[in-house]
Amino acid sequence: MASANAVAFFFFVALLLPASLAQLSENFYDKTCPTLPNIVRAAVKKAIDSDVRAGAKLIRLHFHDCFVNGCDGSVLLVDAPGIISELNSPGNEGIQGLEIVDAIKADVERGCPGVVSCADILAQASKDSVNLQGGPSWRVLHGRRDSRIANKTGADANLASPFETLVQLKAKFAAVGLGTTDLVALSGAHTFGRSRCRFFSHRFSNFNNTGSPDPSLNPSYRQVLEGVCSAGPDTRANFDPTTPDVFDKNYYTNLKVGKGLLQSDQELFSTPGADTIAIVDSFADREGTFFKEFRQSMINMGNIKPLTGSSGEIRRNCARVNAARIGGEGHDVM
Predict the structure, then answer these.
(1) Where along this sequence does the record place binding of Ca(2+) 2 (predicted)?
(2) Looking at the predicted structure, is the pLDDT value of residue 142 above 80?
(3) Residue 309 domain-assigned (yes or no)
């Protein structure tokens, strides 16, 4: 009987262990890198001071990281032997900010060498990017480790497209465990930043082979955008034509008047009978409601399949895996 009890206890502990290892924590770096929040915030502020788009670039990297294999820093890996970079995926075409991540990582390494993962840096930098430009703050959960592999195929399939319908967007969010409120709240990150004309100019004429413009696109706004895009498909337009560099609720007020820049933005409000319409209305009515849900949705997204415990590694260089040691194991500098 004692032996049977011991076996039962072993399996009970084994069942609990994965959940324990996957648990991220607010105080993960309290002893090993207590200055991390200050280091990252200072670096993000420096980046925004020199490039107002820096915050939007950083949060986009975090989004695109978490939607492929979870929040593991894989989006930062460049092509190397055995690695086909996710940056080659159409969903990451034109993605920017890698040099900003490198600068933040360098500052963190000076203060806390070999301790903080690139995946955690993306999560922390995203919070600061939002907060420094007028948005909410939250306690970032830490403890993610960096992947030693990339997944371009996953990036091709899993990243949301600006050309997608609400049904398609919901499916991609559901695939990573995020719900409709998460979809609407996280889309609010488009309250700052820019997009290239090639991602929305299909709305100007012959939309979906109708021979007419996208009917959900405000006609006067369309004329403004057509003027901007006359300079070429790689010209950038503000996501938010009202307060383009401030993190606020105007993304949602814009949707209510047909001024969502991307088709995938406007789908949230203009899809007939959609349950997202009421959420857009609530966020447009009260900025505090949006901020509250955005904070929670960022935490939800940051919890997507993190590598923890002894999985993965702490990369010295966010763009490349650590040099392999004998036996082919990744060198762990923890």
Answers:
(1) 191, 240, 243, 248
(2) yes
(3) no
Tell me: is residue 70 an annotated ligand-binding position: yes
Q: Tell me which residue range forms the domain holding 295.
A: 178-299
Residue 134 vs residues 25, 244, 248: alpha-carbon distances, Å: 25, 12, 7
Q: What is the pLDDT of residues 18-34, one digit of tens each?
A: 343 458 999 999 999 99
Give which of 176, 122, 45, 55 is closest to 319, Cα–Cα: 122
Check whether 234 is labelled as a binding-site residue.
no
Query: What confidence category does residue 324 fall into, taking pLDDT thresholds of 50, 70 and 90?
Result: confident
Tell me, yes or no, whether 127 and 237 share the same domain: no
Q: Please, are residues 142 and 131 in contact by the beta-carbon 8 Å criterion?
A: no
pTM above 0.85, yes or no: yes
- 243 in a labelled binding site: yes
| Inter-residue contact 239 to 191 (CB < 8 Å) | yes
Are 141 and 182 members of one domain? no
Cα torsion angle, 253, 298, 133, 101, sign: negative
In 3D space, the residue among 306, 289, 274, 318 whose CA is nearest the CA of residue 118 turns out to be 318
CB 115 within 8 Å of CB 29: yes
